[in-house]
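Handout for the seminar on molecular recognition.
Each group receives one record of this type.
Step one: identify the two inputs.
Step two: read the structure output and locate the region that could contact NAP.
Step three: write two sentences on what you found, then compare them with the reference statements printed after the record.
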Amino acid sequence: MPGPADRTRGGVALVTGGGRRVGRAISESLAASGLAVAVHYGRSREAAEATAASLREAHGVPTWTFQADLAAPDEIGGLFERVRDVCGRLDVLVNSAASFDHAPLAAIDAPRWDRAQAVNLRAPHLCIREARELLAASAAAGGAAAVVNIADLSGVVPWRGYAHHGASKAGLLHLTRCAALELAPAIRVNAVVPGAILPPAGEPADSPAWRAAGERLPLRRTGDPADVGAAVVFLATASFVTGEVLFVDGGEHLHGSNKR
Ligand SMILES: NC(=O)c1ccc[n+]([C@@H]2O[C@H](COP(=O)([O-])OP(=O)(O)OC[C@H]3O[C@@H](n4cnc5c(N)ncnc54)[C@H](OP(=O)(O)O)[C@@H]3O)[C@@H](O)[C@H]2O)c1
């Protein structure tokens, strides 16, 4: 039976939104585990190229960058054609790219609802669908043949002001289980639910509010993007695990309405 390192060595991972913040840490952990990494980006070309270059240098693995607007289904098809042509194989798909839109329920009109579902739920589904053949080939060759979807706690407990976002992430968790069942035995599909890892873009990580958010958690601190990367590597290589959801949230999901 091949061990985890055998299942990643020589393989290729694609990380959507893999050039910055949490996606970058996932790319970094996968590269450190020996996988070549295809870094997908939407608008952040410079960040994606910098990430790809730094992974190449630090871990000696091949890296590539690929642009696609994941809200556009035809661009997703094109993305996987390019991955097939350029990388030649795909062993791990990480659906990390997402929007994070706040709006009170009354302000969520049809376009706003649709935008959240398009990026956070439809795109992961279409990516999995487009990746199937490549991942099945990975399975046949003894590779990892794994999908890891990145959800969040709004898909497990309701957050005020995030009905559209939370519904998309809840859908992603259910899609994880549906795909795990339907794509077995060749392809495993799992999810990570990060908690308070990084404050929203533009907000400082050393602010009193962010520290206080950490102190309210059972583990009394916020997490690190590398914690999410480590969970992704685990699920990418855990050969008897499928349809599972791994919380990386300092215990936040245990709270319910009891905040301490
Ligand atoms: N930050 C946290 O503490 C936290 C907590 C729980 C869950 N998560 C989850 O972890 C993942 C990453 O979080 P993050 O905070 O690092 O996210 P982020 O800063 O909001 O970045 C979102 C990423 O998604 C990409 N993206 C968004 N819309 C896109 C589109 N239409 N087409 C292509 N790419 C698109 C962006 O790429 P470009 O910049 O290239 O456009 C960017 O790389 C997300 O799934 C998020 O829900 C994060």
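Reference statements: The mean pLDDT is 95. The beta strands are 12-15, 36-41, 63-67, 92-95, 146-150, 188-194, 245-248.
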